[in-house]
Amino acid sequence: MSSIIQLLPDHVANQIAAGEVVQRPASVVKELLENAVDAKATDIKLILKDAGKSLVQVIDNGVGMSVTDARLCFERHATSKIRYAEDLFALSTKGFRGEALASIAAIAHVELKTKMEQDELGTNIVIEGSKFITQEPCVLPKGTSFSVKNLFFNIPARRNFLKSDTVELRHIIDEFQRVALAHPNIQFTMYHNGSEIYNLPSSNYRQRIVNTFSGKTNEKLVPVKEETEIVTIEGFVGKPEFSKKNRGEQFFFVNNRFIKSGYLHHAVMAAFEGLLKDGAQPSYFLYLNVPPNTIDINIHPTKTEIKFDDEHSLYAILRSTIKHSLGQFNVAPILDFDRDPNLDTPYQYKNKEAEYPTIQVDSSFNPFADEKPVKSSSSFSSGSSYKKSEVQPSWESLYVGLEQIQGEEFGTSSFETEAVSSSLFDDVETEHEAGRTFQIHKKYIFSTIKSGMLVINQGRAHQRILYEEFLTNITVNKAPSQQLLFPLELFYSVNEIEMIKELQVSLEALGFIFETINDDSLIISGIPVRATESQVSIVIDDLLNDLYQGISTDSYSLNDSIAKSLSKCLAIKTGTYLTEKEQESLVNNLFACKEPNITPFNKPTFITLSVDDLDKKFAL
Length: 620
Description:
Blueprint: H1 10-21, H2 25-38, E1 43-49, E2 55-60, H3 67-72, H4 100-106, E3 109-115, E4 122-128, E5 131-138, E6 143-149, H5 156-160, H6 165-182, E7 187-192, E8 195-200, H7 205-212, H8 217-220, E9 221-227, E10 232-238, E11 250-254, E12 258-259, H9 262-271, E13 284-289, E14 295-296, E15 307-308, H10 311-328, H11 377-382, H12 388-396, H13 402-412, H14 428-431, E16 437-440, E17 444-449, E18 452-457, H15 458-475, E19 481-491, H16 494-510, E20 513-517, E21 521-528, H17 536-547, H18 555-570, H19 580-590, E22 606-610, H20 611-618
Parallel strand pairs: 1-7, 11-13
Antiparallel strand pairs: 1-2, 2-6, 3-4, 3-6, 4-5, 7-8, 9-10, 10-13, 11-12, 14-15, 16-17, 17-18, 18-22, 19-21, 20-21
Helix pairs in contact: 1-4, 2-6, 6-7, 9-10, 15-16, 15-18, 15-19, 17-18
């Protein structure tokens, strides 16, 4: 009987490992950027084409590699960071991923150019699908250039699972931001299809955060700093009034490594308790430094989750530190009855010299220059200085013709009289005529039908009406727009601006008019008729939040997502009073829709109660 168990060839094993290491181009970007950081580079460039599907190139000025190291780095379980098993619990670099470069080389065309400072010549290696094509010396500057072309060229099934360029670029930007924010002392530059996306010079933490997102970010940041034996916390949290519905600007860094921690996030939310609206998420950029032997970073394949030895103490320290910072900078209210607010001094006046007031005297001023001569006291007694003739006609003329006006107005007026009925149920039939609508609890609309009664959820019904209207405007005809007297200027991050540019054509079909779209802001001069000026920022924020999870490559799916998001945001909410005409208009427009039964989110818009159902309620 032949053997059943057999060893896999290296190229097959590398392709299987690639499924764990490389899910999308962003995974390649993460590995190459972290390798460049570990190489002690001070300038790192990221060059992309087609959102990384055609090219991912990382160029750094680090220490480089020798000829032997350049060849060995593509072998499985080859690393410069691990010597013994105990080293896994005391990592100070980006961690150990022995099969990273080998897995990338197994599913792409890879070209490596590297040179150490003391060497005269560098090394150029070309690999295609785990096969070494060439290895030759070449003239290079100090550092390493790693190019990954045609990702998943030999695994077309994996390539078909990639999303659109917009989605893949957003994931790459997320990974780029995480590495760039963790290392502000390194200059980072990012290019996509020949255009510059980021140019982040070497700076401190605050400047790196502001440069990464937008210029208005500096106004939102509240410094956080605390040093204990367990952990050293440094960073910033956003002011509550700048909170958003998405969790895009939330970063935890432990020993300069980005992590995700629901436990620490709960500590931040606990510190903001009572300061945020329902569903709002604060922004934070927190850098934690702990001893390497007190954490385990190998519990997750992507190293984004960490296990701490003393989580409870870390939770308490983080929560109290943020609370203290919010109170110190007057973001959170302070309950101190002995505190005199008049003695508060702004922080910018800490080292400012006191300015002494100056006194200016006008020597030529004469207060009696324009004074008129005063008459004798007898003139006051006679009242000649008081112009009685000018005042008297004014109040006497108020009553001239009043009797005639009263007779004209009140003589023709009629008063409504309310007929008192002797029976309680005499006029029931006349009050509840067929087809009339009634609003209950400012949420439901009741209407009578032949078979019984119709109960409509006003918010859901309006969602269906707006959804079909927006979808028609996007796909068939352009909606009208109302011009703003003063254009609105809104500020967003670079990632959000890129998403708005992708949605610009669809938004303009809905009635938005964009004057200019800059790197970190946009100016809107026209908005849809259905929206108000105060709703514009809320509408765009909700739209970005809904589309943040992914945008389909199909244009119809994109338009459908936009119509759904805007209909949900602009629909009337529970608690809105509707007049009888508005109720009837809502009912008529609902049943004029193609699908009046359900909302765009597959929830029922109305229910019917037949006479039999009502009879059963009163049955004994």
